[in-house]
Amino acid sequence: MIPIAFSPDVIDARETGKPIVALESTIITHGMPHPQNVETATLVEKTVRENGAVPATIAVMNGTLHIGLTSAELDQLAQAKGVAKLSRADLATCIATGGTGATTVAATMIAARFAGIHVFATGGIGGVHRGAEETFDISADLQELAQTPVTVVAAGAKAILDLSKTLEVLETLGVPVIAFGQSKLPAFWSRNSDLKAPLRMDTSADIARAHLMRQALDLPGGQLVANPIPEADEIPNEKILPLIEKALAEAHRLGLSGKAVTPFLLQRIFELTDGASLKANTALVLNNARLAAKIAHELMTQTA
Ligand code: PSU
Ligand code: MN
After folding, report:
1. Which among 247, 230, 130 has a CA at the least distance from the CA of 190?
2. Residue 71 host element (H or E)
3. Deepest of 76, 105, 142, 168, by most Cβ within 10 A of its Cβ?
4. Which residues surround ligand 2, an ion (CB under 5 A)?
5. Is the ipTM, as predicted for this complex, more than 0.95?
6. Which residues form the active site (predicted)?
C-alpha cells in the first residue's frame, strides 16, 4: 500500500473523466525563489484550468504521495526548508521514511503514470551537462523518458546543458523529441537553438495521436514535446550565454556535483540576470501548461 492522497479536484476529474495535467514540484522548491515560486505555480494551475484540464501538482509531503495539491499545501511546500529533491532513485525511500520531497521530471513521470495521467507540463527537463565526458552528469530525466509512457511538454533544455549531447542520448534511448510548430529545437530562454529538432508537429491533435500510437504499439517510454517560449518573452542568447558561463565556472570552482548542480545554476542565473531569467521561465511554463492541457483534452476526445 502506498500512502497516496488525491486533491479534491483530481478526485472529481477522475470520477467524471476530465483531462488531467501533471505538474512537477522541484521547479517550486529548487527552481525558483519564494514567493515567485508559489505565484508561478498558482498561475500555472490556473492556466491548465482555463484550457480545459485539471492540474495535478505532484509532491511527497510527510510520507504521502500527493497527486494534486490544495492551495494551502502548495503554499506550505513553497516555503518549506530542506525539502528533498526526488528523482527515480529516491522517490520510494522518501515515501517509506515519511519524508518530504519535491519531484523532478523523472519522479513526476513515475507518479503521473501510477495515477493514470498521460500528460505533464514543466519548464525545462534535465539533460546531459556540459563536460559530461568528464563528470558523467546526465540527468535521470532522460532514462525516465525512455521507460515511462507520459508525454512531457517542456521548452527544450537550458544552455546550462549540452544540447546536442542531450539530443544524441535521447535518440539512443528512442525518445521522440517533437518541436511544436517549428523545425528548430527550442532552447528554453530562446525560441531557437542552432539544432534541427528530430521531429516536428503543428497541432495538439497530432501529438495526442502519436501518444496513442505508441500505446497501441506497446512501446515503453514517453514523448518529449519542445514548445518554444513566446516571442515577446525571449531572452537573446548573446545576453544570457556569458552569464551561464559565469555560473558554470562558479559551480566548477565550488566542486559541485550530483543533485546540487542544477539548483545552484538556476539560482545563480536568476541573480546574474536580476530576475529576468525568472520572468522568462514563468512565461514559458505557462505556455507549456496551455499546450499540455490541449494535448490532454485531445487524448480524451480521441479515446472517447
Ligand atoms: N531545468 C530547469 N528548471 C528546473 C529543472 C531543470 O530549467 O527546475 C529541475 C527539474 O525538476 C528537472 C531537474 O527534472 O531540475 C533535473 O535535475 P538534475 O539535473 O539534477 O537531474
Ligand atoms: Mn545531474
Report:
1. 230
2. helix 71-79
3. 105
4. 137
5. yes
6. 24 (proton donor), 158 (nucleophile)
